Amino acid sequence: MITTVDLAVLYVRDQAATVDFYTRVLGFHTVKDAEMWPGARWIEIAPPSGGTRITVHTASEFNRTPGEGAYLTLACDDAPATARELRERGATVTEPVTEPWGTYIKVEDPDGNDVMIAEK
């Protein structure tokens, strides 16, 4: 039986800039960085506590366009505090929004993808 989501794919314009954003700004760490074929890298990143990993691929290497792939929703303990911390790291972050199902913020990655961060 399926037990978890293991890996999501994110197709981007600039692999290095995206990995830098997710590691430096969002606090992820690099799990794997290996050559797939000459000029193409397989890079997996994960949040500090582990869990589902994201593989970041240069879109053109896979005949895709940036943003064609997974929509990301991350989790945090405190949305307002997370928004403040991400702004201090230079991210563009929305104000917290509270819906009947919970509170969330959105941050924009280097390709203009909105990444939702929901309070759990």
Write out key terms for the chains shown.
single chain, 120 residues, 2,3-Dihydroxybiphenyl 1,2-Dioxygenase, domain 1, 4-stranded mixed β-sheet, 2 helices, 18% helix, VOC family protein, Glyas_Fos-R_dOase_dom, Glyas_Bleomycin-R_OHBP_Dase
Detailed description of the structure:
With 120 residues, the protein is of the alpha/beta class. It has one domain: 2,3-Dihydroxybiphenyl 1,2-Dioxygenase, domain 1, CATH 3.10.180.10. The protein is built from two helices and eight strands; from the N terminus they run βαββββαβββ. The longest helix is centred in the first third of the chain and has 11 residues, at 15-25. The mean pLDDT is 90. Residues 4-120 form the VOC domain. This is VOC family protein. It comes from Nocardiopsis suaedae.
Form type = globular
Overall pLDDT confidence: 90
H and E order: EHEEEEHEEE
Give the strand line-up of the largest sheet. Answer: 1-4-3-2
The helix tally amounts to 2
Question: What gyration radius follows from the Cα positions, in whole Å?
Answer: 15 Å
Q: What is the fold-level CATH name, i.e. the topology?
A: 2,3-Dihydroxybiphenyl 1,2-Dioxygenase, domain 1
* Helix content bin: 10-25%
Q: Determine and state the CATH class.
A: Alpha Beta
In CATH, the architecture is Roll
At the fourth level of CATH, the homologous superfamily is 2,3-Dihydroxybiphenyl 1,2-Dioxygenase, domain 1
End-to-end Cα distance, whole Å, is 25 Å
Low-confidence stretches: none
Pfam families: Glyoxalase
Domain VOC: 4-120
Protein name: VOC family protein
